[in-house]
Automatic annotation (TrEMBL), chains A, B:
Species of provenance: Mesorhizobium humile
Keyword annotations from UniProtKB, A to Z: DNA-binding, Transcription, Transcription regulation
Transmembrane segments: none
Keyword Nucleotidyltransferase: no
Pfam families, per database record: LacI, Peripla_BP_3
Protein name from the UniProt record: LacI family DNA-binding transcriptional regulator
SMART domains: HTH_LACI
GO molecular function, one term: DNA binding
Organism phylogeny: Bacteria, Pseudomonadati, Pseudomonadota, Alphaproteobacteria, Hyphomicrobiales
Domain HTH lacI-type positions: 3-58
Length: 331, 331
DNA sequence: CTCACGCAGGTAAACGTTTACCTATCCATC
DNA sequence: GATGGATAGGTAAACGTTTACCTGCGTGAG
């Protein structure tokens, strides 16, 4: 049986209310003597307040829920890590949920987090738009990252990356290097974060006076498995000298596919990634990529969330992060 | 304001107790009619029980805490993913904590998890032995993974890998391939999971009648940063034709170090990893390694935890997983 | 002497559930 | 016609906190 506030109160010869006041530093009207006695009992009995009981009454848990589509994708691992760290620095904790890009799971995580009384939810890029009705109903502050989300009044912030520019930079770099047939590999073709990247990819072609061959486009998912599959499909179907992958995980899969076909990177085929996950420089052939400052994004998300929790009236933030190019050895 | 059990009760014209009974399927003495009315109201009002209130009274949250030293290490990402999945399949959720191999953080996570009423804690490999007094006091079922932990009665299971054999297999493979000077890179030299691996490494040498040169040993941490640093140190200090890295992350760092020195893998220096993280085959030079079945380990951990929660009297399990060799292109 | 106020602390309700135990009705049995 | 066991459901306490409001007491001003 863990120590409760009542144990402290009894041993200190005061009421539970007094102990609570001291613990929460609302102790301006508590004598120095009582205060000291309480603190020393707290230490002695190793008392930790029961967060559950506290949450029940205060309706605040100082916990933030994070939903990502795939924690195995190193991008999200970094993001989650950054969120968690930022949260802890501000006295919050996080609960992680993995949706597998499955809307049903996402919905169930949303209700799970709600029933566990999280103070806010960070919803990271997933292919689909969440059930607006549910979000509306939960009334839990929400920070969306890199995804379309309806404009609810519980939307605390929106953290996005300028995908259009990122994809444009990636394609432009390859075009400048003389490539004329560039494959484009990205996630769910229906999701905005793929459509927008494709627009940037096409703009680069347009400005260079190059056509975009639909045979060079493969969209499906952002993981390495799809990167491999897409590369196999592309290699069977057509010819190209470079690949513009819209995530580093895709690029890693793509390089495996190229290797299978005996093609060397970057001599036979250049590869651009996107995200600059921490593994990118560790691949034995370090990956050229687009830097996205994952940690900063995670930190921003949590910061925005907590700011909103502190003061829901403050104007909503929407941050658009500018990507930059990192050149390594694959291009 | 979320719907509560009282809202349902009022609208159904029954007491909250009745609703609770129906919801928890303790409804043998509730009429079919009432039961249906309640369920339909639950659907209609989108009622989800408040887990906090429930936990408070039942003293069970159906949440399992997981503490890992470094979520960025792909090994732990996979482990956490597997734990989470296994937990969800059995109706539990997980809360993740990252200790950065810092005993102080680990302690604070332990009390955090306790105060949030988790039903159990999975403590994954970290360098140090946790504060036994604290564990003893928390009385929360514990599953330890790949680490030394005092023999408490709240220890539900211990999931370990046969590191001795793993390291032996790794070194033996390299010795069979004709290597005579093999570097050994591992984590914290004081931790048992490094000492044990070193024993296996030495046994392989012993059986082959080879000496172990202390100059070839570098122990520090299991991440890729230390892998890189250790490789630089080793290259400066001595000569070797192979590296026996005790984690894949170390191997990834090592390969970067070898590359810096213009050495090619495996021609100039062979590299063995340990863990078989999912990234290993994605490195452009796929990594030979020791397979550890991370997912199975995670799943076992959670299974053991929940079995223990279901029946604390059942005999404790200690599982020792046997590693196997996976040969790819780095050796 | 009264009043008001500052101080130190107590009282009890509340948060949303679960659950042990109680009540009331009905029907069959002796 | 009393007893008793199903059946259907209600009552209220409990979980561990927080917090609005109350109670004395002492003291200084009027």
């Amino acid at each position: 049986m863990a120590t409760t506030i009542k144990d402290i109160a009894r041993q200190a010869g005061v009421s539970a209310a007094t102990v609570s006041k001291v613990l929460n530093r609302k102790d301006q009207f508590i004598s120095e003597e009582t205060r000291e006695k309480i603190w020393s009992l707290v230490k002695e009995l190793d008392y930790t307040p029961n967060s559950i009981a506290r949450s029940l009454i205060t309706r605040s848990s100082r916990v933030i829920g994070i939903i990502v589509p795939d924690i195995l994708n190193a991008y999200f691992t970094e993001l989650v890590r950054a969120c968690d760290q930022a949260a802890r620095e501000r006295g919050y904790s996080t609960i992680l949920c993995n949706s597998d890009s499955d809307p049903a799971k996402e919905t169930s995580h949303l209700t799970f987090l709600a029933s566990h009384g999280v103070d806010g939810i960070v919803l990271a890029a997933s292919d689909l738009i969440p059930d607006a009705r549910l979000l509306e109903k939960l009334r839990i502050p929400l920070v969306s990252m890199d995804r379309e989300v309806p404009d609810l009044d519980c939307l605390a912030a929106r953290i996005d990356t300028d995908y259009e520019t990122g994809a444009y930079l990636s394609a432009s770099h390859l075009i400048r290097n003389g490539h004329r047939r560039i494959a484009f590999v990205s996630g769910n073709p229906l999701a905005s974060n793929t459509r927008i990247r494709r627009a940037g990819f096409e703009r680069a072609h347009c400005e260079a006076g190059l056509p975009v061959d639909p045979d060079l486009i493969e969209c499906g998912a952002f993981n390495h498995r799809f990167g491999l599959m897409a590369t196999r499909t592309l290699l069977d179907r057509t010819r190209f000298t470079a690949m513009c992958c819209m995530s580093d995980m895709l690029a890693m899969g793509a390089m495996v596919g190229l290797r299978e076909h005996g093609l060397s990177v970057p001599d036979d085929c250049a590869v651009m990634g996107f995200d600059n996950i921490y593994i990118a420089p560790l691949l034995v052939r370090p990956l050229s990529t687009i830097e996205r400052r994952i940690s900063e994004a995670g930190s921003l998300a949590i910061g925005a969330m907590i700011d909103f929790l502190d003061d829901p009236e403050r104007p909503r933030r929407t941050v658009l992060m500018e990507p930059t190019v990192i050149l390594r050895e694959t291009t």
